[in-house]
Fold this protein.
Amino acid sequence: MDNNDYQEAVDFAIANFEKIEQSLPNSIKEREEKLFGKMLSRKLNPLNNLRMLYSEIDIIYSHLGKMIVCDRGCSHCCYQDIAISELEAEYIFKNTKAKRVRPEIVPNELNGPCPFLENHQCSIYPFRPFLCRRHVSLANSPRWCEQDVCNKYEFPLFSSSEVDKSYAYLLVSSQKEKIYNNIRQVFR
Ligand code: SF4
């Protein structure tokens, strides 16, 4: 992969982003527009609000299916340093009983596959953190997500400002906004 390949892939990703935005059905756009207001009006406990947010993300992102290279069995992003909030760590613990460990101070030394990756599949898929849901490659090949490649090149990812704003609000309002830079700091 050289710089020409990279430029071609970035151009593809930018064009893909525009194509996705233009093709979003009105029902999804309306859903996205109402999301933050829905989050503000919620009185339930933060873990229930997180479940609601994940469910909305799944609906909004489900439209991307055929326009992205991410697919079942591709696990390149599960080798990266996935950041996770305290609220999400609690959500995983309560729903999966995964073993939590005392947070490590040196996340840079914790590498290898995510502890939840089994046979190239996420073993806690319904409860996976926000960043795993949000990591949607717009590039022309999954090879750009391979660990040694993605450390060298940057790509635009699909994003929704309403989703990001709702997530940030939920973390702050729950007072569980502490972020661990690497999921391996809290789960093994
Ligand atoms: S939680 Fe699941 S999707 Fe996220 S990095 Fe780990 S194995 Fe991959």
The first strand starts at residue 84 and ends at 85.
